[in-house]
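In this section we walk through a basic example: taking a raw amino acid sequence and producing a predicted 3D structure, encoded as discrete structure tokens. The instruction is simple. Fold the sequence below.
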Amino acid sequence: MKRKWISISIVSLCLLSISFYKTYQESSVAVETTAAVQPNQEAFQIEEVPYITERIHAAYPQIIGGTSEKKAAKWNSIIKDDFDRILQIYSFDPYSELKGLPAAKGVILNISYQIKLQNDQFLSILYLANYNSPYSAHPTELVYTTNIDTVKDTRLTLSDLIKLDSNFISSLRNWDFITSEPDNAMMKAVLKRILNDMSEEELLEGLKAADQINSNNHWGIYSYLTPNNFGVSIAVPHFAGDHVELEKSYEELKDYLNPDYRWNFNP
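The resulting token sequence is shown next.
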């Protein structure tokens, strides 16, 4: 029987599907940027494409240079498809019957992104979606990611990058917490308890479904890459922050990483 916090988490994820998605015109204004490049990263030219509607303020990246037009088109297609999937999660307008009320005005969904890694093998993007539904007791913030193989021009999932078995599950439970919240020993203990309360079978099932931006990803698990670390984001109850990120260095994950890729074992 699933524990109580699991039921709460699943209900919260279901409520998130009550949101706003409608036909739109993207703004023609695009801000050209070059994402912050750390050592061993390549600098693709990236522009930020805004997505603005009455209810939504969001943006996603678009590759405009640093690679061939053909490859950029394939990557941009993957990025846009994932961005549209995120919007689809928030596809119902909760204010459709309340248009005459003051509360029906204003932005309820904000989506921002970070370029976590860009090099000759990978492009890793992390999205933060902040949602404030009139039917929820509190705002929520969830993570979504897009990982691209920049050689094969394909979308990657966690299982493409990591060998998933019981040993990896044991390792994951001991990864370092990466969080924007102040260092809090009590909260870290809570997060550790939440992870430990997930059975090996449940966690393995969740990892196998990771990075799917749809209802099949029941646990809200997404992976991302940094220059030196492999990252995993897991949805947790609101009282624990909605999501938690864990990271481990590639050096410490040698036994699990896909050997078809070159990994930075010497940060």
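Looking at the output, two observations stand out. Confidence is low (pLDDT under 50) at residues 1-40. Helices lie at 4-16, 69-89, 158-161, 166-172, 185-197, 200-208. In the next section we compare this with other chains.
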